[in-house]
Amino acid sequence: xxxxxxxxxxxxxxxxxxxxxxxxxxxxxxxxxxxxxxxxxxxxxxxxxxxxxxxxxxxxxxxxxxxxxxxxxxxxxxxxxxxxxxxxxxxxxxxxxxxxxxxxxxxxxxxxxxxxxxxxxxxxxxxxxxxxxxxxxxxxxxxxxxxxxxxxxxxxxxxxxxxxxxxxxxxxxxxxxxxxxxxxxxxxxxxxxxxxxxxxxxxxxxxxxxxxxxxxxxxxxxxxxxxxxxxxxxxxxxxxxxxxxxxxxxxxxxxxxx
Length: 258
Description:
It is a single chain. The chain is α/β, with parallel strands linked by helices. The protein is built from 8 helices and 12 strands. It is 36% helix and 17% strand. It has a 5-stranded parallel β-sheet with strand order 7-4-3-12-11. Strands 8-9-10 form a 3-stranded parallel β-sheet. Strand 1 (5-7) and strand 2 form a beta hairpin. The longest helix has 21 residues, at 217-237.
């Protein structure tokens, strides 16, 4: 994309953020990340051993050069665990950018909003750049942004569900009322879902399962890249208003008479 966006002191060009889990191999993860054109990739610190080596290579060796690692606190069910995990990520990676996840329900993986607010407040006070995964609740998003989070990450649908954007009305309210970038996170299933998120005005979209779980992850990654670019261009261009009745595509004035 020609334009970029900032998250605190960090700047990015690609509006597609990808995950690193669920791939058949680390080579496939690397190839899909390149095909997506992403410059940020999430890593679940509680599920990935960054120091472990396979055939002499570590996980980090498969992350394409120039791609920023966004550690996340996936798997945390309390604010305390999320804070501790984030601090570990800062020690390992040398930066304080973190995707904050505090899960409230094991079955749906919906976030625990009060615990997310608590953890965000603690991490922000400790100098972290906090990107919170949160429900599509406009009030929660407003409070996180007012607290100092440089972006909010409302879910589109349950994690890994592939259901697409289930509540575009709430997402539009968030986009209109939150004075921070909005990154749509979780629930994207295919390229059209990503395009819709960007057409609505989202700054970016984050996905993992939609790419890694596809029959051809590398090809799907390319499709998502194009969809995000198309959605952003459509948002910037401005769609025509919806009308109940037809309107002629050619002017009616000055019609020739026979």
